[in-house]
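Intended use. Records like the one below are meant for learning the mapping from a protein sequence to its folded structure. Do not use them to infer anything beyond what is encoded.
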Amino acid sequence: MSDASTNGKMLAADGTPLKRSLARALRRQKLRALMLIAPLLLFVLLTFIVPIGDMLWRSVENQIVSETLPRTTEALKDYDGSDGSLPSEKVFEAAYYDIFIAAENKLHTRLGSRLNYEMTGASSMFRKSGRGLEDLGELYQDQFTDLDKDWDKGEPWAELMGDPAWLEEQRAWQKGADQPPFQVSGEIEALLPRTAEQYTVFARFTQTEDDKSPLREEPWSAVYTALYQDLAEADVSGYTGPRADMLKAADALVASPDFETMSFQETFEETDKDWGNAEIWRTIQIFSPKLTSGYYLNAVDMQNTPDGVGLRDESQRIYGLLFKRTMFMSLVITFSCILLAYPIAYLLSNLPARTANLLMILVLLPFWTSLLVRTSAWKVMLQQQGVINDVLVWLGLVDDANRLIMMNNQFGTIVAMTHILLPFMILPMYSVMSTIPPTYVRAAKSLGATNWTTFWRVYFPQSVPGIGAGSILVFILAIGYYITPAIVGGTTGTFISNRIAYHISSSLNWGLAAALGAILLVVVLALYWAYDKIVGIDNVKLGG
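Structure written out for the chain above:
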């Protein structure tokens, strides 16, 4: 490597500036290091960061309402039902087509379940409406079919509604090949806009979902409803395209006084009388945005009502109680583990290595037993006819008629979880205590300190990092446990995690489960921050 160049800069052996050469070497070194840890980073990203991000998204996501009822949510923008008035016929019309299409796609029950979280009874309303709204279309379908049987066939409809070029391609289609996407006739689209829209939805659904030709399938009953509406408003006397005579005859039928009709509002109220309640429409309006705070409000025993944010009924306020119970019991379990683990860890760290290793096997033995087995064993031990009560009765300490109730309550949960989490407290304590030099204790005693003073002033402060590490580990594990509280906790010993598991596996209210999980995550992070400020996370050690 030369010492200098013509301009006075240090150069590498290849003639490049030394500074640039060093920077390039450092970049290569960092890149190699990154490649070594890339699998771990990818694993953490896929198994930790992505699930948390998905949880946070689900806790505010609310697209199902706007995507399933696009026409209804748009029509409800100017609706004000604060006085209890119902929306206009236009809103009922939009809801009719939205729910009909949703029912054909089997989405109306999902939507009903979502709104049922906010208004009890919404689920059954949408389920019944998915079946009942067909009656309106069938009312018009029967009258059109009585006039001309061709209205009940697929090919006449396709000839009337389809673009001629599409019609030619569709007739040449063979089963197994890709179907040409339905294209509506421009003239019909201008003349019969509602019918064109509904028939297009039907035809493309038939092609993609059923893999059938629209030429061979009669339309949905909603298409007949749309045809009636268009004929009631449009002038088709000048139409000369395909099936002109059939269309003009239907127009004359609609104009006759004998043609039977029914309003959309009447249809909804006949399907379910609760559609005549303004509350359901205001609920749809409130939860029509794609993002919602409703899940978080529910998670803190509040709700987004038509009158604004308010507390739930007192009988429905359960999550605040569960959060308080979870925090209280987790703290009790943590302190119980500290009291039991400290003397054990102290004993292990001061015994000869051979004896300490033998006893350590006993500490680790629970890890070799299934969590479910250990919890079930405590159920056998704690129940009123269990081992502990039998022993107490045998010793005469408890009357047989007044056996202790130690299960299906907070006591049972605390006992079982303390036993299960105790090793997680012992191990960090032991790893720290085993590194404390025994000469410190001997030096303190040689200077005249008593055993208590030696322990409290010399030994205990050096063991605090182990207590901190074990406490954080046990507390975080405790607030997330749900198997043990579910088995031995009953109604008063369950945690918020049990409710999260219920919403994920049973009620399928994933949004509320995600909101509860997010709040629990924030609580843990807040406590971690407080611990760092008070104790200092740098003081937490696992030995060494």
